[in-house]
Structures are given as structure tokens and as C-alpha cells.
Design brief:
Number of helices: 1
Radius of gyration: 22 Å
Number of strands: 15
Shape: elongated
Structural class: mainly beta
Distance between the termini: 50 Å
CATH superfamily of the largest domain: Quinohemoprotein amine dehydrogenase alpha subunit, domain 2
Helix content: under 10%
Length: 199
Amino acid sequence: MRFVIDASGKYKWANVFLLQEGSVTGYGMTQSNGEITTGRQYKGEVHVKNEEVTQVRQFDVEFDVSVSPQYTRTELDNAGAIPADKFAAEFMKSLPGRWEIARWLGLSCTTATGTLDVGEEISPHKFRGVFKIATSNNDIVEEDVTISMSGTKVHFDGEKIRAAAENVWGKDVIDLELWKDLMIGNNATDFVVLRKIND
């Protein structure tokens, strides 16, 4: 069974049968039904009945699994990776300033737009920053973050969160790759692309 979640959060499953000639989606007469609940955990059950001339097969699949988002990184098409030996210098040069949220997609398909302002250097290879975020759930959030180097990654640690409603946003802890004018990465719940705004 193949389970697919699209960008809008809708899900579907496909019955795939492994035969001698390879895998096929249509084989005999197949009926399926089930119920799935979504969120940070995908939980449910799917029932499949497959009939052909000589046999009847029935499958019951139950699952309860957490999901980590993975998305196609189309933003990298025109970007160049920062070599490891130049990472520290590029980090110091390119981080300060304003970044826009080019893509922020979380589980349950929550999206966000906004900016990241990277300000003063508070210690070697460490900056303060402020996320200003508007979510697809109509929440407005400001989050103070510290930004530091972690090997050849840009590491974010969320600190203070300001929002109209409580518990609408968790503190962000995320590691991102630095690519030319982009920062791209994900944690257990979110996939993020930040693009540098050149003045």
C-alpha cells in the first residue's frame, strides 16, 4: 500500500500489487476503504479486498506514525553550495540583514510568510534575530532567536515568543544549509526556505 499526502494536506492511498512482472496498481477487482486522522501523527486503518478468478485476498492495514515533512527543493536550482572551507566567512558576511520567508510549510499544512531580521553579533559567529511571522491560521507571531554556526549549518534557537493567543507557535530549533542567498532546512515539523533581501 502506498500512502501519499499532497501539498494541500489531502491524502490518498494506492493499492500496489507486486507480481512477477513488477508492481501494478490495477490487478483483478479491488475495493478499499478506511479512515485516517492527520496532524503530527497519522493514524488510521485501511481495508482492501482484491478478487480475481481463482482467489480472494483481504488486507487490513493499521498504522500510527509521526511524519517528518520532506519537500522538493526547487529553490536550489539556481543556487550554489557554500564550500566547507569558506562557510565561516560566508556566514559572517551574509547573515546580517533582512531575510524573507520564501517557504514555510509545517505538518497539517500550516504555512507562514514574513521576515527574519538578523541584527547584532553577540559573540563570535553568533547573532540575534527576530522572526515576524503571519501563519495561514491567521496568527501573528514575533519570535526572538539566536543564530549560530553548527559545523557547516546555520543553527536557530527560538527564545521569546510574542503572539496574541497563547500556544499558537512553538520555539523554533532548526538547522539550515546556507546556499548563496538562501537558507534551507527542516526539523521534525517544519520545512523552511529563507531568501536574503538585497538592499
